[in-house]
Write a structure and sequence with these properties.
2 domains, 7-stranded mixed β-sheet, 6-stranded mixed β-sheet, Aldehyde Dehydrogenase, Chain A, domain 2, Aldehyde Dehydrogenase, Chain A, domain 1, binds nicotinamide-adenine-dinucleotide, alpha/beta
Length: about 500
Amino acid sequence: MEEIGHWINGRRVAGTSGRFADVFNPATGEVQARVALASVEEMTQAIAAAAAAQPGWAATNPQRRARVMMAFGALINANMDRLAEAVSREHGKTLPDARGDVQRGLEVVEVCMGAPAMLKGEFMDSAGPGIDLYAMRQPLGVVAGITPFNFPAMIPLWKMSPALAAGNAVILKPSERTPSTALILAELLKEAGLPDGVLQVVNGDKLAVDTILDDETVQAVGFVGSTPIAQYIYGRAATNGKRAQCFGGAKNHMLIMPDADLDKAADALIGAGFGAAGERCMAVSVAVPVGEETADRLIEKLVPKIERLKVGPYTGGDDVDYGPLITGAAMTRVRGLIDSGVAQGADLVVDGRDFRLQGYENGFFLGPSLFDRVTPDMDIYKEEIFGPVLTTVRAGSYDDALDLVMKNDYGNGTAIFTADGDTARDFASRVNVGMVGINFPIPVPLSYFSFGGWKKSAFGDLNQYGPDAFRFYTRTKTVTARWFSGIKEGAALNFKALD
Ligand code: NAD
């Protein structure tokens, strides 16, 4: 059986802890590899080696660091199919979706090719007589990225690219369920010219993460994953004096106004609700049609589209719409949530629980499910389902629908489908959610903006990628410099204004 190790000091190394986690083929349910789980010693050594490599990298001029990003981007393009295959093999998502996973990470690398422009700092000449003030943006040192299973290429690229371009060394701890893609990315970065030790990919579980959180060398932690873990990591990192930004789970609502183009809204809900088997933090999991008639017409349009969805393995051809869930435990959990929705009185219009695929009976597949008449007190509304389940909460009015979104614990993404610019503008302005789509179901901002939710979808400061990432991965040092010219002798003991 394949054994997946770590990437330390510019090469693949085997784990030495003797601890492993199974990596499944989600389509067959078989264990296809095992990944080493780092010990405290392995992680501590990886951090120490990164600390030794970082000053040289920070001293490399920003343009040269940006050229490594340019070469890296070219290599990602050249290896697109290999990377997508690695994503699909462990995650189970379709190949076109896996290419999207790589592409949305590559776009962040592209922005990092222009990193010097983001690192320039500020300057004020003659702030006082002979006095200049300038603020430098300096790298933090060693920073860590801890990433989830659902975007094995994109999120590691979001985490490491700006951090590296800003002159930091990075410890990347990918999800133990999808560990291979990050190792390929590390190989490509070496080929692109990144010095050894500047990026360490250390596989592991809670022990590896806790070691990062308690290690004094690590200056900042960027986390993406579920809300309870995000909150835990934020708390422990902050207590230990680290900078932390921790992005969590979601419950994304899409409002469908009576004047919306319902065909387009239904197509958007199918893609955003069931793509990647619903395992996206920006998946739309709650449809909120406004008015009974809108709701009836929407459900009527959704049902045949859902029944036509083709579920299968990523090797199953171009017409497969989505694949299996990540683990058997995830599948059982989602099935249990569907059961709870039925028990708590929601109307299960399409039932995907009994889906079976010939030849893949042990795979972690679930058919698509659609609930109508869901209410906010039900578990299927309160919990992030993270599966191929679309729930519908009927709202009596726009204000009721807005109120529903506003009262939800999560605030990652939301969308409104309407033909009325005034309503759309009002929604975008008032809603307490970090990313808003107008007639656009998955409003993941492009890489020169930045990504981040509100409420329980994010803990800490600043967003991921874009200009915010360069603020997060640098700290400001402000210098007040005076070169004497015509200054009278004698000490000044008062706290002086610069005049
Ligand atoms: P997860 O929280 O289980 O794991 C994320 C990372 O944390 C992994 O690297 C894992 O090894 C580590 N981890 C898990 N348990 C830990 C513990 N007890 N202590 C320390 N570290 C621990 O998340 P997941 O299941 O891999 O990913 C799915 C979740 O991620 C969903 O909730 C989804 O909404 C969220 N997500 C959020 C965003 C975003 O940007 N907001 C993006 C993608 C995914």
